[in-house]
Amino acid sequence: MDSTTSAKYGTILVDASGKTLYMLTADSSTSSVCKSSSCVTLWPPLTTTAGTKAGSGVKGALLGTITRSDGSKQVTYNGHPLYTFSGDSSAGQTNGEKIASFGGIWYVLDTSGKPVTAASSSTTSSSSAGSGGYGY
Known about the structure:
Elements: E1 2-6, E2 10-14, E3 22-24, H1 37-42, E4 47-48, E5 63-67, E6 73-77, E7 80-81, E8 100-101, E9 104-109, E10 115-116
Antiparallel strand pairs: 1-2, 3-9, 4-6, 5-6, 6-7, 8-9, 9-10
């Protein structure tokens, strides 16, 4: 697991291939509520067979695992079970941010393990020319 800088959300967690990692507010530190095939298809859990390894910007002390109902080991960060989102087709996308489904809200995580609930203020800019917000 690594971190990367998102233009919209600051420094966030990503998997080994650069895909954004998410947490679900309905989960607990010991259990994932994303168990149904429809949930797992949309939000594949980040699992491991060889343990967890902290990459660039990741705090190893915050890494852990939980055992899923199928016996697999799901990676956690600061007590949050981690997932990717099927709607992110390439590295760096954050299309799953703030989606409400499966009993909670999905958020990206920063490197301290906290959910990012708003766009980073360092990524916004003001313009006296009033050129519009480019969709922000």
